[in-house]
Amino acid sequence: MQSWQPAYVGIGSNLEAPARQVLRAWERLAGLPETLAVCRSRLYGSRPFGPVAQPDFVNAVAGLLTRLDAEGLFAALTALESDLGRTRGGPRWGPRLIDLDLLVFGRECRQGPELRLPHPGIVERNFVLYPLEDIAPALDVPGLGRVAELRARLTPEGLWPLEPESFRSAVRSV
User: Mind telling me the catalytic residues?
Assistant: First the structure.
């Protein structure tokens, strides 16, 4: 049996009541096979990333423990996105109902065509690092450094908390 691995998943939405979409995805992460949804950051609002005009996003990060391997978890996240109504084929960095990004999986580093770990761009995206710092400030992102140090390099420009700093959500399921 595979040992438990920590994994961190970015959650984002900017369509159809985005905060509700992010919370719905968080609840559904708890139902993934052989996975425990351990904690969630507070929700953040953020300006869109990229050149496409679109509504603001709501973002969060979930902390998981899983017995799935990286490919299995990535496949489960992709299937969950589809189940939650995400359609592919729109413009890159365009609006989306739900986006689930595998940010960090244990100590894995890889550069595959579908799965790259840690997630590319993590060090330049405040909408990832601020919520990740909420739940894992001491996490050493493989090959990049500690989350708190990475986050300290970024300003909160275009990012605002939607929940109080004291917020923390935890759930355990199998």
Answer: 86, 96, 99, 101
